[in-house]
Write a structure and sequence with these properties.
The protein is mainly alpha-helical and 435 residues long. It has one domain (20-195, 226-431): MFS general substrate transporter like domains (Growth Hormone, Chain: A). 82% of the residues lie in helices and 0% in strands. The protein has 14 helices and no strands. It has helices at residues 12-16, 19-50, 53-80, 83-102, 108-129, 133-136, 142-192, 210-234, 236-265, 274-296, 302-322, 331-360, 363-394, 397-431. Helix 2 packs antiparallel against helix 3 (53-80), helix 5 runs antiparallel to helix 13 and helix 7 (142-192) crosses helix 12. It is globular, with a radius of gyration of 22 Å.
Length: 435
């Protein structure tokens, strides 16, 4: 009796017919459009007020600092509480904060404070979002589901970046926040239609006094942190995948610090147009490569895709650094092509790395692992972002791009070396019939 194998090209369709996964995807789209619009708007407002890369780096750090203190705690809470309710609260709370911004004058101090509040709320939202996927699909559908998640994520980044500049012109620097609040409200409505997801672990216990609760929380966080470290120590592929997920996000954050200055001084375009010329092509590259990976590369090695992403990313950085040294192509047109390739590179890291994590970590610990990821991003990005702002103001953006490119290329060769060494060891063990 022959068994008909499912074609990789058909892996996406069954997921698109699952109502619970569709409403989840819509919630991702609306919330991510708003979140990515917000990032661009605040970066543009900050740069227009100060014309300083360092000021933009402080803005980025304002978003990262809460990750150090709250991301892992957010993962613990996401595992212990109803993830759907966390998403509901996160969307409506951010919508209300955005409405408040409409009534406040644009000042640098308030922009930093505003970003800090949004960042704290986000730390409890993000660890509950991606870990929902294994609850909504079957295990064998995880790569395809992550590809669709990547399409929604990167597609919403594309839309958010494209819309950010025109929205600021249409609604004004204050009115645009009402528009983004409406998008968070739509995400809230989509989550309302999702099924409840039971907590993966027992609910957090509460004590009689505030002091007792504080000590209980401290011991709980420390215990859960040690448990996650044990998981990463036992599963090296999960640890390395988390490292590359963190690295890809750190690179994006570092580049966001210098993009406004790069747009004005190298590409000679207004800072409001960076969403169209730089961020949008990158998001389009992420979107298209996510579709390709999900439909065609389900049988390919995850590690190979990650390696391709690392080497492509380093090449992109070198091209950006040298873009104005040539006289053959229009700078803006060439920049669009390079950022498109950058988007492909990022998706090659993001999708397989996230799939490895979801496939090898149980549901009871998945949110905590993602919480640790965002903690790692914040710690790893702290010094590079501050140094990038300073070096870009003193040495120029070219030196920063070359430095990051060299470090990333070196990491790619190290990964290639260890992968080859591991394959040689496995082959030797198989030859001796020890595996």
């Amino acid at each position: 009796m022959s068994h008909k194998k499912s074609s990789p090209t058909n892996n996406l369709l069954p997921l698109l017919l699952r109502p619970q996964f569709v409403v989840f995807s819509l919630s991702v789209i609306f919330s991510q459009i708003a979140a990515n619009m917000l990032s661009i708007v605040l970066i543009v407002l900050t740069y227009n007020l100060t014309h300083s890369n360092f000021a933009v780096s402080i803005l980025v750090m304002t978003f990262l600092l809460p990750q150090v203190f709250f991301s892992f705690l957010g993962g613990i809470i996401a595992d212990a509480k109803n993830k759907r309710k966390i998403l509901l609260f996160g969307n409506i709370a951010r919508a209300l904060v955005l409405v408040l911004f409409f009534f406040v004058k644009d000042t640098l101090a308030f922009i930093y404070l505003f970003m800090l509040i949004i960042a704290v709320l986000t730390q409890f939202y993000i660890p509950a979002e991606a870990p929902l996927i294994p609850h909504l699909v079957r295990r064998q559908q995880l790569l395809a589901a992550n590809a669709i998640f990547g399409v929604c994520l990167f597609g919403s980044i594309l839309v958010g970046y494209v819309v950010a500049g025109p929205a600021m012109r249409i609604f004004g620097s204050s009115g645009v926040f009402l528009f983004m609040a409406g998008l968070f409200a739509l995400a809230f409505l989509c989550v309302q239609l999702m099924p409840d997801v039971a907590p993966s672990v027992r609910k957090l216990r509460t004590k009689k006094t505030m002091t007792a609760n504080a000590f209980h929380l401290y011991h709980l966080v420390w215990k859960e942190f040690r448990d996650v470290l044990k998981i990463l120590n036992d599963k090296k592929n999960v640890a390395s995948s988390l490292l590359f997920l963190a690295l890809s996000q750190v690179i994006i954050l570092v580049l966001a610090t210098v993009v406004p200055d790069y747009a004005q001084k190298t590409l000679h375009i207004p800072s409001e147009d960076i969403s169209l010329v730089i961020f949008a092509p990158a998001a389009l590259g992420m979107l298209l490569s996510s579709l390709l990976i999900g439909s065609r590369f389900t049988k390919n090695s995850h590690e190979k895709l990650i390696s391709v992403g690392i080497f492509l990313s380093s090449i992109v950085l070198f091209l950006f650094a040298a873009i104005d040294l040539q006289n053959y192509f229009n700078l803006v047109a060439l920049s669009i092509v390079i950022t498109f390739i950058a988007g492909i590179a990022n998706a090659c890291i993001f999708i397989p790395a996230q799939t490895i994590v979801q496939s090898h970590v149980g549901n009871k610990s998945l949110s905590k692992v993602f919480g640790l990821l965002y903690l790692a991003v914040a710690i790893l990005a702290f010094a590079p972002i501050i140094m990038t702002g300073v070096f870009a103001d003193v040495l120029g953006v070219r030196a920063v791009l070359l430095g990051i490119g060299i470090m990333l290329l070196s990491l790619g060769f190290v990964k290639f070396y260890f992968n080859r060494k591991n394959k040689t060891l496995i082959s030797a063990l198989q030859a001796k019939k020890l595996l």
